[in-house]
Amino acid sequence: MIDKTEALVLRVTPFSRTSHIVTWLTPEYGKIATIVKGACRPKSRFLGQYDLFYTCELLFYTRERNTLHIIRECSPLRARPAFRENWLACCCASYICDLVSRVSTEGDRQPELYYLANSSLDFLAAGTVGLQFLFWFELRLMKTLGLAPQLSKCPACHSDLVSQGSAKSFFSYVRGGILCTNCAKLTDDAATHISLDTLAMMRSWQNAYSPSTAQHTKCVRKQLLEIRKLLGIFISYHLDVMPTSRNIAMDMTQEVARGKAHRTQGT
Length: 267
Fold this sequence. Notes:
Helices cover 43% and strands 21% of the residues. The protein is an alpha+beta fold. The chain folds into 2 domains: 2-93, CATH 2.40.50.140; 132-266, de novo design (two linked rop proteins), CATH 1.20.1440. It has a 5-stranded mixed β-barrel with strand order 1-2-3-5-4. α2 runs antiparallel to α3 (131-144) and α3 (131-144) crosses α6 (196-207). The termini are far apart. The mean pLDDT is 89.
């Protein structure tokens, strides 16, 4: 049986001296893996038709008893050449594909996850890179998976936190969000204090469909470090993953931003 779909390349793995195994994210079939026989041969018809971060039109033979399908045809729809020139954008794109590969499932329709991954890579390929964007992506990813942190209602008593206007807020990754003052006193779980300005930014980014909202938000270093820590703990606890690519992407992005700030001050 031959199936046709759009597909985003998440990973390319050598299979032999001449073949690849390609992991794709598709809207109809979730995550799938295909073997591309003879992909590395000089006259292969697949040369230049796929690569990491490509979105392609894919035709493949479905193998019901084997999760490794056989590719028939492939043609690129969006190659995103910017990732071959902008190393920082490539680093962030690698984290996005790595995280999506870990949380996506085989055989399940995941159109929202597919759209999020594609639109996020398009945004990165346009040359806009920043920690705010990565935090936006993590918040939107958790929301897409149905695991978004509760930032406006207490997950314990379901009271409206926005209307309460508390002077202090407490983030509990075990309970799944921000606790009201009373529940924070009663819980035995470790709850981390979160500043109100940081909480306001996270609420805004979580509900924003475009990363431009987050990317244009001016943040100080303290706020960025606070959000990085909170989201890192939350993702690790609820998804049971903490890829090394996250620290690499965020360290590099933060280092580049710090260098730009120093050059600006010097001028």
